[in-house]
Structures are given as structure tokens and as C-alpha cells.
Amino acid sequence: MQVTVSPIDQGVKGYNNYGAWLRKKYNGQRVFKVIVDGGFTCPNRDGSKGYGGCTYCNVDSFTPSVSRKAPSLREQVIQGMERARKGNKADKFIIYFQPNTNTYAPAHYLKMMYDEALSIEPENIVGLSVGTRPDCIDAEKIALLESYTDRFDVDLEMGMESIYNDTLAQINRGCTHEELLRALELTKNSKLDTCVHTIFGFPWETHDMMLAYADEINRHEHIKFVKFHHLHIVEGSVMGVKYKREPFKLFSLPEYTDFLCELLPRIRPDVVIQRLFGLSDRELLIAPNWQLKKSEIQHYIDKAILDRGVLQGAAL
Ligand code: SF4
After folding, report:
1. Is the CB of 44 under 6 A from ligand 1?
2. Which of 134, 291, 294, 312 could form an SS bridge with 15, CB 3.0 to 4.6 Å?
3. How far apart are CA 114 and CA 65, in angstroms?
4. Ligand 1 nearest atom to the CA of residue 99, by list position
5. Does residue 2 sit within a domain?
């Protein structure tokens, strides 16, 4: 029997996708992120910026349950590597400090945490990825992260979420777009790879308002990576409580796919897209429930992009 391999399975996509970028950068080795929780908190939760957090946030919703149960940083790294080796035949790893605000501590403490995570099988670690808020970045922390770049690729992922201050206020972000711009200025001439994270689908943002995110990303030439998320509502968040009381319109999968097919041609072709959609654990997800596994959603979107001949950057 002849097995037909689809273009998507061969890695052909209409956008500059992270998987292909990693394969090229690391000479075909299988590189996977190991998510770790460094036990940091968040200034938008502990009161220094606000209480209750961003209204869409339940920190647990963006960490796989397996990482949440691991007791120590060391064990999280060891177990994460083991899972990636078993499940994905991983060769090399990027240590990814994801939940909460992973630069929200004094620099000496951050160094201790990053050092510890990177000390486990350093010969098999190729990168450090740190997720944070723009208002928790300063020159000292940039310098600390840069100090690792002689041994690892280091990327700093900042939540842009929306380019509109009105939205940032409505979601209790406790951080303005100008603060993101200041953080982007700090990373501009650094050795760090800059990544921004956005959310599409706030019900008060129009289609055109969302498409305008592309212009904002494009004008910062050192933005190397982006992560796109659709708004999803999770248990344990303020938005979750509001949504249950008064549901509002969220993207269906076909609608979100249509939106991405319009957005991608407006994004600079050199920007590497780490993610096109977000997904939380099923037990935490309230809506929208697209009733598909992550790989099925990815395939649905990739297929639409390919079938429609969508090409990143084509509209520029
Ligand atoms: S989304 Fe990030 S910044 Fe907002 S409350 Fe959650 S951890 Fe804090």
C-alpha cells in the first residue's frame, strides 16, 4: 500500500513556523521546550501592581498539569526532558520558565533559578526561554539574561496581549502599551531574542482593530518570535465568573482560522510564529470548546492556510 504524506506532514506551511525554524537552526535535531515553574509570583496578583491578576488569567491554565505537580525545579527539568524524549524523541531542550512572571524577583535570585535549571544536562540544553511582563524588565535583568547567551540561545517572551490601553485597562492588566514599548527599547540592541504574546478576540475589539496588531509587530524589527492566542475563558479567572453569568461572543474555530488567514499575510515574513492558538487543560477550559485535540486544531488551521494559498507577508 502506498502511503501518501500530506504537505503539512512534510512541514510545508504558509507561515514561518517555529517547528521548521528549530529544525533548521539546530541542524535537524529534535528540540523541545521543557516548561518549568520557578515558583515566581506576579505583581498583578501580589498587590504591587494589582490584585486578582489579569481577568483572563488562571496561572494553572497555561501550565501542563504534569509540571504543576512536580515538586522541585530540578525534578521538573528531569521529568520534562524524560517526557519529551519518550513522547517526542527529543534530542535537545529549551528550558522554558512559563507560568507567572519569571523576571519578578531580585536579579541574584533569578540567576540562582536559571543557573539551577540550566545545570541539568547542560550539554543537551540549547536555549533558555523566559516569559514575563514588560513592566518587570530592566537593564540589570537584561544583562543577566544576556550573560547566558555565550552558551545558550535566550529568548525573552513578553505579554503584549493587546495594543490598546483601553483593552489593557479592561482586562486589569496593570501595564500599559507604553510600558511594553519601553521594554522593547531595552531589548532592541541586546543579544536576546524578543518574543511577544498577543490575545485576539476581546469582544470589544473589532476585526480591524485586531488586524492592526500586525502593524505594531512589524514596526519593531527586533521582534523575532510571536505567539498568537485566541481568547479563551478558563475556570479560576475573573473573566470565567463573568462569562458564566453573561456569556459573550468568542471565536469559533472557523472564524479564528479566517482571521488568521487575513492576519498572516500582514505579518513580516521573517517573524517566526511560535504559536497560532492557545489551549488550556480541558478541565479548566470553559469556552470556546472546539472539541478537538491540539494536533487536530493545528491541522485544521494549517490545512486552511495551505488550501487558501495564504502566505505570511504577502500583503506587505
Ligand atoms: S497573565 Fe501573567 S501578568 Fe497577568 S495575572 Fe496572569 S501571570 Fe500575572
Report:
1. yes
2. 312
3. 22
4. 7
5. no
Report the atom number in ligand 1 closest to the C-alpha of 45.
5
Any long-range contacts for 181-189 (C-beta under 8 Å, 24+ apart)?
182/134, 183/134, 183/135, 183/137, 183/158, 184/134, 184/158, 184/220, 184/222, 184/223, 186/137, 186/138, 186/139, 186/142, 187/137, 187/142, 187/156, 187/222, 188/220, 188/222
- CA 173, CA 183: separation in Å to the nearest integer? 16
Predicted confidence at residue 52, as pLDDT, reads: 85
Q: pLDDT (tens digit, 9 = 90+) per residue, 55-101? A: 999 866 555 555 455 579 999 999 999 999 999 999 999 999 999 99
For residue 87, give its domain range: 18-307
Which CATH number fits the domain that encloses residue 134? Answer: 3.20.20.70
Q: Are 287 and 250 in contact (CB under 8 A)?
A: yes
123 Cα–ligand 1 center, Å: 32
pTM value?
Answer: 0.94
Q: Which residues contact 215 (CB under 8 A, 6 or more apart)?
A: 266
Domain count, the chain: 1
Distance 53 CA to ligand 1 centre (A): 6
